[in-house]
Every structure is written in C-alpha cells, then in structure tokens.
Design goal:
By secondary structure, the chain is of the alpha/beta class. It has eleven helices and 13 strands. Helices cover 35% and strands 27% of the residues. Helix 3 packs across helix 4. The relative contact order is 0.13.
C-alpha cells in the first residue's frame, strides 16, 4: 500500500460556537489526485488550512509526508498551497512576485527565475509577465495564484477552488496541468465542479458537517467494479439473464438494465456475462456505464448519510 501523504486523526476546530471540523479523520495516499468534496460549510477550506499549517486545530493529530504537522523548517518547499481567497500584491509585477515566492521556498535566484518562466507557461501568462497584478483580470490573478503553488518541486500541493473564475477552456487546460503535477506530487483539490474532479481524481474524500463520510479510491467509492448500467433499445428477458448470470442482481428501469455485482467481480466479467446473452436475443446495446459518476456518488452519500 502506498505511504500516506496526509493523515489527520480526530481533528476538531471551532470558530466560536461553530464546529468547523468534528473528529475529522482522513488518510490520503501519496501520488494521487484527491478530490475534496462537500457542500458549503462542510469544512473543506478549514481542513486544507489545517493541512497547510494556516489554521491551528483545537484537537487531533496531523502527519504530513510522514514528518508530523506543518513546520516551515521541515516542510518548506515540500508543501505548497492555493487558498480560496488569495490576495496578491496589486503593485508587484507578475514575474517579480513569482520569483520572490520561489526564493521564499529556498530556491536560488537563478532557479526561482527558471521556475517562474515554467509556471507562467503552464498557466498561459507568459505574455503578461511584466504586468502588475492590479492590471490583471480576476481570472488572470487566479492563474498567477495557482502558478505560485506549482513553483519548485513540492511533494504535496493543496488547492482550494483552483479553477474558480476561469473560462471553460482554461478549466480544461488546468485539469491537464494538475494531472501532470500528480506525476511528481500528491495533489488535493477542493472544488464544487464535480464533473471536473471526476475526470482527474483517482481518490476522493467526501465531507459533511465537518466530518469525513467517504474516503477512498474513486473507482472503489463509485463502484466502478460492481455497478453497471446498460442502456438497451428494448426490454430484456430478466429471467433469462438471471439464469445466465445468477450472481448478478438485475433491475430494469426505463430503458436501462441496472446491474449490481459481487465485490470480487470486474467490469470485464459483468460484460462477459451479460452482453453475449443480450446480443443473442437481438437486443441492441446503446450504452454501457460502469460505476457512478462522482456527482452521483456524492449525492448518494448525502442521501444515505454515509459514515465511512
């Protein structure tokens, strides 16, 4: 099993009488893109703040990269973050500010300049490198803030709503950036855009009222190996299908055959058991969907009040 990049146990955080985190426990493996999902007020921003050392927990244990809670001397340059509300110096030129952040990480002047060039290219702002922050649009300022979180060679990158305010084509571009970053870092992303998270995450943490209600590999949480929905052009003979595949639980819903398989089944086994029978019966297969989307998984968790 992969070593955990982040382990939080029994974390509690109060803001006055408001409990932002309530016995929050989570473990995120190293080398994954992890989606942090939950409604407004679930505690996502507070959880990221605790990880980054920006928020002091009232109780609980924190372990980052196997080296305890955040301390600048131990974790400087190894952990980077993009806060949800990130205000940048409006008077600073873009490249000067990023080079300064690189120096704060401990990079040499030359390396900080090289990294500034690299991350500006990643976020498509090379042509605005000498512009002052105050001259940029909201989306451009957000991209500069994202760029600073990608400087150097961080082992853990914490991003709170990183694509907020970006145009759709830039959201797609940033998704590719995050996937590239994951080849050398653990990336934890909080976002309300569940479709985007589902397209790039391989791990998910679902939060509700300051607690972790689901935590695991996305394929496992979303039932990628045990759930299937097969859209057909006409109703099948369920008795025939059940005789051919007695281990499967089958339901006909509208134009879709819903399939629940045992935990040790794979998608390939589901297809092999059902598709030949359907085709032999002259039933057209329009679409096959394995597992749930992240959005469906999240909504089901809220409906069922899961505690995993």
């Amino acid at each position: 099993m992969s070593q955990a990049a982040v382990k939080l146990s029994g974390i509690r955080k109060f803001y006055g009488s408001t409990r932002a985190l309530d016995d929050f426990q989570v473990s995120v493996p190293a080398g994954v893109v992890c989606g942090l999902v939950g409604p407004n007020g679930a505690g996502k921003t507070t959880a990221l703040g605790v990880m980054a050392g920006l928020v002091r927990a009232d109780a609980g244990a924190i372990d980052l990269l196997g080296d305890g809670p955040f301390q600048a001397r131990r974790h400087g340059g190894r952990i980077t973050t993009l806060p949800q509300d990130c205000l940048l110096n409006a008077h600073a030129p873009v490249d000067t500010l990023l080079t300064y952040y690189g120096r704060l990480q401990g990079l040499s002047r030359q390396k900080a300049a090289q990294e500034t060039d690299r991350v500006l290219d990643l976020v498509s702002l090379t042509d605005r490198r000498r512009a002052r922050i105050g001259q940029l649009s909201h989306g451009m300022r957000r991209r500069v803030a994202l760029a600073q979180a990608l400087l150097g060679t961080p082992e853990l990158v914490l991003l709170d709503e990183p694509t907020s305010g970006l145009d759709p084509h830039l959201v797609v571009q940033m998704r590719n950036v995050f996937l590239q970053q994951a080849k050398k870092s653990t990336v934890i992303i909080s976002s309300h855009i569940l479709g985007e998270l589902g397209a790039m995450c391989d791990h998910v943490v679902i939060m509700e009222a300051g607690r972790c209600v689901r935590n695991g590999a996305l394929d496992e949480v979303a039932g990628k190996g045990t759930l299937a929905r097969i859209q057909l052009d006409k109703p099948p003979a369920l008795d025939t299908l059940r005789s051919a595949a007695p281990a499967l639980s089958l339901r006909w819903e509208g134009s879709t055959l819903s399939v629940q398989a045992p935990q040790d089944w794979s998608p390939q086994q589901i297809n092999a058991a059902l598709l030949p029978v359907l085709l032999d019966a002259g039933i057209g297969i329009i679409d096959v969907q394995i597992g749930q989307s992240l959005e469906e998984t999240y909504l089901a968790s809220r409906k069922n009040g899961d505690r995993h």
